């Protein structure tokens, strides 16, 4: 695979990072000042882009060599990161940037995953902005938007249809921009297909958003209150994130089911995803069986890496859950504050109206207006960001379940391999017995069986090694994504904090002359 | 309210005081308040302790002072409720909320409320002349108290008869208007005070929640060997720092809100009640006058002279009360507006100040 970009020597990369460090500081202050001049345009889109794009300008040379040996590649990458991290602010600046290779359809059609392709999709994430930064304008980008939730039908058979719009310049798709209508069960169906196909060979398939019987019933029944609109919005955002995560994965992106999901206007209805259907119950039974099995498999772990990782993810899971609880309580209080501020605004307005002293009356009405605006502010900005946090955290808690699932699959694969070995042993024993018993036709059968099981053992070993490899790759991807996702949300949150404060200043400063004019 | 120092009294004995309630301390079952007072005219500074009962006694003395013309026309500065009281009447819940301003685990607020009360008393041209004020503010030992009788001055009890009197039509437009506007203003001030207090409480809750979130972010920060974990840990720490700032900001905002507009609204909802009580006293007197007139008209000749005397006395008292009331009302409104303005300006200045400082901090410290 030809690289169209000559990787800069390491020195340059450092320089980039340095610039990025300073940029980081300046970025915020400059954002602050630009925000002051244009209060009505709270678009911080440029900020994270610049931050992360700077990273992409410094790909590490090790990456670009496109070694076919995945393990070495990975090892080098890890080294790179840990060496530089203490001095650098964001770890991401040292992260081996994805190979800037153009995606050629032919290379990726094969279902077997090529090592190199794993790193490509990281570009998808900040695709639009990165695009602007890239010198040679390598174009692969993919933007998915889930929008326009529409209620279809009536009563208990009603459902929400969402519009899924894809904008891309990838050649694997027929058009550059297309949109389809999908309902929630379609998404679940897609996930189910992907999980069946990929999880047992070690791919971390992003989990679909959760079902909610209560939420959906409210919508179906037609309750037009804020909680049901909130529910629909939450779901819409979750579906969007789900699709974005799925297409970020190069293998999944090229899966025909995914492509069909995004492109084709008609999709066979996925009935088996219904909670109480036969398939649903079967799923539940299987899950229980799996859980029991998991407990009985005692694996001889030859690779400490896997054990460490499992422990690490266990810890992460706990931490994320705790964080989620904290954030939820914060979101709750924010909502409360918004409600209270609105109530006070009304009170102050009434007080102002009943006040005889004109200047005081005016000032009080003004105060009411300020408080109302502040209330809006609380609602729109800070609340939304905590909400972002909460959703991200719950996404990751579910993703971790998928990760754990993949580790479990590896154990199963190992078990299968061991079972095959045991079976082979038995067959061999049977054969030697038969040799002494001198039954030629049965002997032949035994020999055939031995060959068959030898093959199975070999396959089992191969499978096990393959899944181990895949998992390592996947985990690496997951880790990078995790850091990236959280960083993005944190940056957004900080920006909005600054913005909120600045808006508050504006509102209060406008109020001062009124207050002074009272007496 | 007006500074205790500014006084237009020529009588040097009753010159202004500078009073501060500096502290509250627990003394067995009760609380004592440490008060520092200094008369403007002299350099002598007095320090002493008073209990809440001493304040109540002072209040009682003010209400029952003899020989003051039109005493009942005075809008008596409201005394804050006793800390820890639970009111049993139907207004309890609302009042409790407002009064809990004083009890928000914040003795400073309560001391300030008491201090404000003393300011208001010593700033009042008539009340400051009461010898009880002297003995309260100058003597080390608390004044000797007799059992305080609860008259209709203390609480506005809603006996059916009183309710009827309250709505008695006034003969004077000025007063009728004042009574009407007092009614609406009282209700709205109370409501606003309550709602504002809710805001303050929520702000405090958010501060606490930020603290929890910040602490939770510190969890699981142990191993640094894994690069992703390390990056994650760094982000968490940074976010934790930011949240600490957010928390402090909210705490300051809540405190400021409480100290400025919160305090003001709470005080004025009580003051509105005090005005209401004064107006009610006057209305009662009006009813007396009208009753006396009626009786005079209906009196038998041998009783006429006595009735005439009663009527004259009632008329005189009524005129005195009305005269005092008019002055008081104007003074009250002037001071109310001024206090409101001060509170609003302070609220605004502090709010802007906090926003500026936190914006500055955030801008400098936000890159992750």
TrEMBL record, chain A:
It is a peripheral membrane protein. InterPro entries: AH/BAR_dom_sf (IPR027267), PX_dom (IPR001683), PX_dom_sf (IPR036871), Sorting_nexin_N (IPR005329), Vps5_C (IPR015404). Its main location: other. Keywords: Acetylation, Cell projection, Endosome, Lipid-binding, Membrane, Phosphoprotein, Protein transport, Transport. It is found in: Cell projection, Lamellipodium; Early endosome membrane. CDD domains: BAR_SNX2. Residues 140-269 form the PX domain. Residues 1-64, 80-103 are annotated as: Disordered. Residues 30-50 have a biased composition (Low complexity). Belongs to the sorting nexin family. PANTHER family: SORTING NEXIN, SORTING NEXIN-2. This is Sorting nexin-2-like isoform X2.
From TrEMBL, chain B:
Gene3D superfamilies: Arfaptin homology (AH) domain/BAR domain (1.20.1270.60), Phox-like domain (3.30.1520.10). PROSITE patterns: PX. The keyword Protein transport applies. The keyword Transport applies. Keywords: Protein transport, Transport. Residues 1-144 form the PX domain. It holds the Pfam family PX. Belongs to the sorting nexin family. This is Sorting nexin-6. It comes from Huso huso.
